[in-house]
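Pasting as-is:
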Amino acid sequence: MRHENSAADLDAAMQIAIGAAESARGFTSPNPAVGAVVLDAAGRIAGVGMTQPPGGPHAEVVALREAGDAARGGTAVVTLEPCNHHGRTGPCSQALLDAGVVAVHYAVGDPNPEAAGGAETLVSAGVDVTSGLRAQDVERGPLRAWLHRQRTGRPHVTWKYAATLDGRSAAADGTSQWITGPEARERVHADRAKLDAIVVGTGTVLADDPRLTARMPDGSLAAHQPVRVVVGLGDIPADARVLDDSAPTLLLRTHDVDEVLAALAEYTDVLLEGGPRLAGAFLAAGRVDRIQAYLAPLVLGAGPSAVAEAGVHTIDGALRFRHESVETIGPDLLLSLVPAVSENPDSP
């Protein structure tokens, strides 16, 4: 007799699936980072999977392979609606049917018309299907950037900056290392390892000579390195560290924000780490989809601010954001914010 999974059982399984999806971030683009858990007929975890790099199996297939025969009569818990298209790996909906899964619970429907329809296929075959389980956690977590790209056709842009309590990104003498503590810097590197590209301006390269790599706490390079993108009309030195062989680098000779994003069309998750002028340009163009603001408990009283001209001249014209979360990281605060006005999915 099949075990009826409780709401708590399914919630716990989805949390594991979300964790698996997070572990896949950075390795799956342009495909979504998906996590899946298979429970056997008795409600025990039989398999856990995550999306493999492009051309590899999807999360459901990985979890089903781990579960083996234990999947028959069991339940699948997935962060994204199982796909229904015949790509390089075949439809996950059919893989679930072939494995004998009798129930599927997923968080978010697939907005991609080429892949959607898996839920309908499963229901037609008699599988018990529900959606919406921890949907907000998935939409704000591992699928945030991918869903944005599906809905807008543009890469998702997160502007990350560090500043003092009085909004300074550097001291009056130009020094900025280090405003934040080591814990915050370690977090930045962990986040970089999940991204497709990091964007800076030529001014940042000339001023700071950054490597823009994702590094482990011991200083070694992370397994995944985002593409380094340098924007601007000026030249950078041939020996700039951003040109070394630790990660690919793309030089874009433009100041136009939409030209930059068009050049990055193949990428999903982009981090903006440029200086105040580049940040201002992206903000003025309405192309900042999320902000990660690291605030250090320091006051400098003078020095450059984190953002320059952003096309705002009155309080009424201010660009408004709302908090999603506030974290304490060592001595610093990390504020995560999104635009206060809902994104128009049909905007170009």
